């Protein structure tokens, strides 16, 4: 097995572990896989008032805690990995599935992530997410919806 092939397999395992922890709201385990200064980007905002870029793992976790407060986790499932020329980079398709405690409404979404790893940690994560399922499940008005940032 070539070094690049081994590295691609490793980043797939790392992502699978971190998204499983994240989806179960195990932020302590999730943090092990994310660099303290990681950058998170959303080219298409989940909500209008949501930041399009977050710098720092701990800030991302704080935003995530607030966003997941009404459920027992997003229970992410990886659907497909797409290798890139650079074995430290990865494109991944995944989805979530949960139920909001306060309303009983289901929430699920599909995501496309583009990630860059250094060693065993993510240093950059760009996520494409559809805002419409968020608005529908949470009963939000896209123009006026607020998220703790």
Report on this structure:
The chain is an alpha+beta fold. Helices cover 31% and strands 34% of the residues. The protein has four helices and six strands. It has helices spanning 3-23, 27-32, 57-67, 131-138; strands spanning 34-41, 53-55, 77-83, 89-99, 106-118, 121-129. A six-stranded mixed sheet has the order 2-1-6-5-4-3. The longest helix is centred in the N-terminal third of the chain and has 21 residues, at 3-23. It is globular, with a radius of gyration of 15 Å. 19% of the residues are buried.
On the 0-100 scale, what is the average pLDDT?
91
Q: Gap between N and C termini, in Å?
A: 44 Å
Topology as a string of helices (H) and strands (E): HHEEHEEEEH
Question: Spans with pLDDT under 50 lasting ≥5 residues?
Answer: none
Rg, Cα atoms, Å = 15 Å
Q: Overall 3D geometry?
A: globular
Q: Estimate the helix proportion, in percent.
A: 25-40%
Number-wise, the strands total 6
